[in-house]
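During the no-cost extension, the postdoctoral fellow (Dr. R.K.) reprocessed legacy sequence entries with the updated structure-token encoder. One reprocessed record is reproduced below for audit purposes.
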Amino acid sequence: MASGSISLKHVEIAYDLSGSPGGKVVLLLHCFGSNRQYWEFHEEAFAGFQTLIIDVPGHGQSTLYDVDCSLELIASDIVSLLDVLGINKVILGGVSMGGMISQAFILNHPELVSALMLINTTCFISEDMHQLWRERSQQVLENGTDAVHDVLMRRWFTLDAIENEIPGYKYLSETFKNFNPATFKKISNAMCNLDTNEKLKDISVPTLIIATPNDPGAPTYISKRMAEYIDGSELHWLEPAQHLSSLEHIELFNSIVKDFLSKQA
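Re-encoded structure tokens follow.
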């Protein structure tokens, strides 16, 4: 496995590149408030492929932008990372925030993506949700991530997962407690500008959508709309779960992804 960080024009991005040399590359983007270790729960799903797993700017070992950023800017810097690594085509996958960045990536750089995986993500942030993120950002700036830890964990995990302290919950809880308040504000602001609704109809690569009924971060009607707008996509539901279903249903998630990837080999 090759690990390191690469300094780009706007940011420094940390990454791991591993797997079968010469195989197709799967680029994986984690959720808000976590880091590239998210994907350690799902390693077996990517057997036979190379995986490029990054820390999204402001997360893990990647630096945060000095100025305001956008999903498009993050996607552009990931393209620059691919250029440095000599990678000209990827299967792209992202969960929640990572799925938002993935949409910006494929819509602006479709020639670089051969297949797409959108996991518990959305294509639109309402004004009500935007206001909620602004309020959370202010709380975090004033009092740190502890101020919103419990409420977000209850949005991201079922009560059973929290009470039983499943590994995925323990990982995310600890990682989020160390999350940079400045990153919270800057990246949540970028997410709140998301609106790819009609643009999704331009996506023409094989697409896997994994969703959860009544996901508070990605409502059922949004998941269905995404599947409808992306021609030929396949939609799978994981339940019971909240927002981070892959961490509550690791084996089933891995099986679904492995089956999808087998069609792209």
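The radius of gyration is 17 Å. The first strand starts at residue 2 and ends at 7. The remaining legacy entries will be reprocessed before the final report is submitted.
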